[in-house]
Amino acid sequence: MSPSARNRPRVLVVERNEDMRELVRFALTITGLDVSEATSGAEVLALLATPDPDGAVPNLIVVQLELPDMPGSTLVTKLRARGAWMPVVIIGRDARQFRSAMAEMGVIATFDTPFDIDDFRAEVLGAATLPSR
Protein backbone atom coordinates (compact mmCIF):
# COMPACT_ATOMS: atom_id res chain seq x y z
CA MET A 1 0.00 0.00 0.00
CA SER A 2 1.34 3.42 -0.90
CA PRO A 3 1.97 6.00 1.84
CA SER A 4 -0.82 8.21 0.48
CA ALA A 5 -3.30 5.30 0.57
CA ARG A 6 -2.33 4.61 4.19
CA ASN A 7 -3.39 8.13 5.16
CA ARG A 8 -6.82 7.93 3.52
CA PRO A 9 -9.84 7.06 5.64
CA ARG A 10 -10.76 3.39 5.24
CA VAL A 11 -14.27 2.13 4.55
CA LEU A 12 -15.29 -1.51 4.55
CA VAL A 13 -18.31 -2.23 2.33
CA VAL A 14 -20.23 -5.38 3.27
CA GLU A 15 -22.67 -6.14 0.47
CA ARG A 16 -23.75 -9.46 -1.05
CA ASN A 17 -24.73 -8.02 -4.43
CA GLU A 18 -21.71 -7.53 -6.69
CA ASP A 19 -23.27 -4.71 -8.74
CA MET A 20 -24.19 -2.75 -5.61
CA ARG A 21 -20.74 -3.36 -4.10
CA GLU A 22 -19.09 -2.01 -7.25
CA LEU A 23 -21.36 1.05 -7.31
CA VAL A 24 -20.67 1.85 -3.66
CA ARG A 25 -16.93 1.22 -4.03
CA PHE A 26 -16.72 3.50 -7.07
CA ALA A 27 -18.79 6.25 -5.44
CA LEU A 28 -16.57 6.25 -2.34
CA THR A 29 -13.22 5.73 -4.07
CA ILE A 30 -13.67 8.84 -6.24
CA THR A 31 -14.01 10.89 -3.04
CA GLY A 32 -10.57 9.72 -1.90
CA LEU A 33 -11.60 6.97 0.52
CA ASP A 34 -9.72 3.67 0.70
CA VAL A 35 -12.45 1.05 0.16
CA SER A 36 -12.27 -2.67 0.86
CA GLU A 37 -15.06 -5.18 0.39
CA ALA A 38 -16.67 -8.20 2.01
CA THR A 39 -19.69 -10.27 1.04
CA SER A 40 -20.77 -11.78 4.38
CA GLY A 41 -20.79 -11.20 8.10
CA ALA A 42 -18.42 -14.10 8.69
CA GLU A 43 -15.93 -12.57 6.27
CA VAL A 44 -16.02 -9.26 8.15
CA LEU A 45 -15.55 -10.92 11.52
CA ALA A 46 -12.57 -12.89 10.16
CA LEU A 47 -11.04 -9.79 8.55
CA LEU A 48 -11.26 -7.79 11.77
CA ALA A 49 -9.95 -10.68 13.87
CA THR A 50 -6.80 -10.89 11.74
CA PRO A 51 -4.32 -8.09 12.42
CA ASP A 52 -3.82 -5.83 9.40
CA PRO A 53 -0.13 -5.58 8.38
CA ASP A 54 -0.44 -1.79 8.59
CA GLY A 55 -2.28 -1.94 11.91
CA ALA A 56 -5.26 -0.15 10.40
CA VAL A 57 -8.94 -0.87 10.89
CA PRO A 58 -11.83 0.63 8.94
CA ASN A 59 -12.88 4.13 9.94
CA LEU A 60 -16.42 3.18 8.92
CA ILE A 61 -18.34 0.10 7.79
CA VAL A 62 -21.20 0.10 5.28
CA VAL A 63 -23.38 -2.96 5.94
CA GLN A 64 -26.18 -4.38 3.85
CA LEU A 65 -29.23 -5.12 5.95
CA GLU A 66 -29.65 -8.65 4.56
CA LEU A 67 -26.36 -10.54 4.30
CA PRO A 68 -26.25 -14.15 3.12
CA ASP A 69 -25.23 -15.56 6.51
CA MET A 70 -26.75 -13.16 9.04
CA PRO A 71 -28.80 -9.96 9.26
CA GLY A 72 -26.76 -6.76 9.17
CA SER A 73 -28.04 -5.93 12.66
CA THR A 74 -26.54 -9.20 13.97
CA LEU A 75 -23.20 -8.32 12.41
CA VAL A 76 -23.26 -4.91 14.10
CA THR A 77 -24.11 -6.55 17.44
CA LYS A 78 -21.19 -8.98 17.03
CA LEU A 79 -18.82 -6.15 16.10
CA ARG A 80 -19.83 -4.17 19.19
CA ALA A 81 -19.40 -7.25 21.41
CA ARG A 82 -15.83 -7.53 20.09
CA GLY A 83 -15.12 -3.89 20.92
CA ALA A 84 -15.33 -2.57 17.33
CA TRP A 85 -17.02 0.82 17.70
CA MET A 86 -16.39 2.44 14.32
CA PRO A 87 -19.43 4.18 12.76
CA VAL A 88 -21.75 1.98 10.70
CA VAL A 89 -24.06 2.88 7.82
CA ILE A 90 -26.81 0.39 6.96
CA ILE A 91 -28.15 0.02 3.43
CA GLY A 92 -30.98 -2.16 2.20
CA ARG A 93 -34.61 -2.50 1.37
CA ASP A 94 -36.68 -0.87 4.13
CA ALA A 95 -33.54 -0.11 6.17
CA ARG A 96 -35.00 3.11 7.57
CA GLN A 97 -37.65 1.21 9.51
CA PHE A 98 -34.84 -0.01 11.76
CA ARG A 99 -33.33 3.45 12.28
CA SER A 100 -34.14 3.94 15.97
CA ALA A 101 -33.09 0.41 17.01
CA MET A 102 -29.89 0.71 14.96
CA ALA A 103 -29.02 4.12 16.44
CA GLU A 104 -28.65 2.47 19.85
CA MET A 105 -25.95 0.24 18.32
CA GLY A 106 -23.96 3.16 16.90
CA VAL A 107 -25.42 3.07 13.41
CA ILE A 108 -25.12 6.64 12.17
CA ALA A 109 -27.34 6.39 9.09
CA THR A 110 -29.66 4.08 7.21
CA PHE A 111 -30.36 4.21 3.49
CA ASP A 112 -33.24 2.44 1.78
CA THR A 113 -32.33 0.99 -1.60
CA PRO A 114 -32.45 2.47 -4.07
CA PHE A 115 -30.86 5.59 -2.55
CA ASP A 116 -29.42 8.87 -3.76
CA ILE A 117 -25.73 8.13 -4.26
CA ASP A 118 -24.71 11.75 -3.61
CA ASP A 119 -26.50 11.83 -0.24
CA PHE A 120 -24.96 8.48 0.65
CA ARG A 121 -21.47 9.57 -0.37
CA ALA A 122 -21.74 12.79 1.64
CA GLU A 123 -22.87 10.92 4.77
CA VAL A 124 -20.11 8.32 4.51
CA LEU A 125 -17.39 10.83 3.71
CA GLY A 126 -18.36 13.01 6.67
CA ALA A 127 -18.43 10.11 9.11
CA ALA A 128 -15.29 8.36 7.79
CA THR A 129 -13.18 11.47 8.23
CA LEU A 130 -14.23 12.13 11.85
CA PRO A 131 -11.58 11.43 14.48
CA SER A 132 -11.86 7.92 15.97
CA ARG A 133 -13.24 7.62 19.45
Strand residue percentage: 15-25%
Mean pLDDT reading:
89
| SS element count, helices | 6
Quick one: overall form? globular
Secondary-structure element string: HEHEHEHEHEH
Low-pLDDT stretches are none
Count the E strands: 5
What integer value in Å does the Rg equal? Answer: 14 Å
The largest pleated sheet is described as: 5 strands, parallel
End-to-end CA span:
25 Å
Proportion of helical residues = 25-40%
The side-by-side strand order for the widest beta sheet comes to 2-1-3-4-5
- The class by helix and strand makeup works out as alpha/beta
Summarize it.
The chain is α/β, with parallel strands linked by helices.
Write the layout of secondary structure elements.
Elements: H1 3-7, E1 10-14, H2 18-29, E2 34-38, H3 41-49, E3 60-64, H4 72-81, E4 88-92, H5 99-103, E5 107-112, H6 117-128
Parallel strand pairs: 1-2, 1-3, 3-4, 4-5
Notes on the structure:
It is a single chain. The chain is an alpha/beta fold. The protein contains 6 helices and 5 strands; from the N terminus they run H-E-H-E-H-E-H-E-H-E-H. The chain has a 5-stranded parallel β-sheet with strand order 2-1-3-4-5, sandwiched between helices. Helix 4 links the parallel strand 3 and strand 4 (88-92). The longest helix is centred in the first third of the chain and has 12 residues, at 18-29. The mean pLDDT is 89.
